[in-house]
Structure formats: structure tokens, C-alpha cells
Amino acid sequence: MNLEKQFLTLITLLILCSCASVPETNKEKYISNVGDIQNDPKIDSLNFKPCSNNVLPLYKNGNIYEGEKIALVSEFTQNFDITTLSSIDDGYITLRFVVNCNKKIGMIRTEAFDFNYKPKEIEKEVLLELHKALLSLNKWSEVKDKEGNRYDYFQYLTLKITNGKIETILP
Asked: What are the extents of the domains in the chain?
């Protein structure tokens, strides 16, 4: 019995010693929520201002746009020059952005992946057209609490590009 206690004590001490804390200098800095978009004056328009420092970690689904998805897709495609796309753009392009309490959008971040989900570069001309079409959308929903306070929120659009054409826009 005494041998068992000594063995358990030894194992416990080994486990505790192996749980050394990581020095503060080696800890990674994480943003508060996955998908947060931090304001970056180098790439973000000075004309766009969030209404507060706290953007809701809400990717609002459902009625996100006046006229709903049909209107959103119609307006986006009307304002996007499809001739900038080619089959090298095939895959998924996601535009993440903030809708502020005034229903204006900004802080746009763009990611592209091929159909095997490998990251890919977007040509500058295509990127400019995507941003132009996105910025033309001006009927975003407002987010309010029960007291009527308005909030900023995150939103995204993912475009599936097949054979150089927009096949679908999500959500």
C-alpha cells in the first residue's frame, strides 16, 4: 500500500512539473472573437466609421437586406462587371465586412479559395470590381435591441465562381 502511495505521489509531481506556465512573451495574442475585423487605417476607408468600438459578433441571417436575397443578388450583379472574371477565378470568394448603425458598410476583408479550399490570390481588377459592387449595396437591415439602441454588426457574402461566372451568392 505504501508503495502505491509513493508511486501515485511521484506521478502527480511529474504531471504538475510538466505543466509549466508559458512566459508572457511567448503567448499569442488572439482577437476576442473568430471573424472579428479590426480597423486598419492602411486599408480601410476614412469615410467609414463604426458607431462604436464594439461590433456585434453577429453574422445576421434572414432578412439582412431590404428586398431580401433576391434584391441583394440582383443589385450586386448589376453593379459587378462580369467581364473581369475568368476561369482562373473559379472557386469561392468571401467578402466580410461591417454594417454600421447607419446601415453603411466598410472594413471589407476578402478571402479566396479554390474548389479544394486552398487559398488563392485575387487579381486587383477583380478585387476592385467586387468592392465596387459591394459598396453599391445600400439597403442593409438595422440591428436594434429592445430599447431601440442601434448596433454595428458583421456580415459576409460568399460568391461561388464557376467557369468565370458567378454561380451563386451566399448567404
From this structure: 54-171
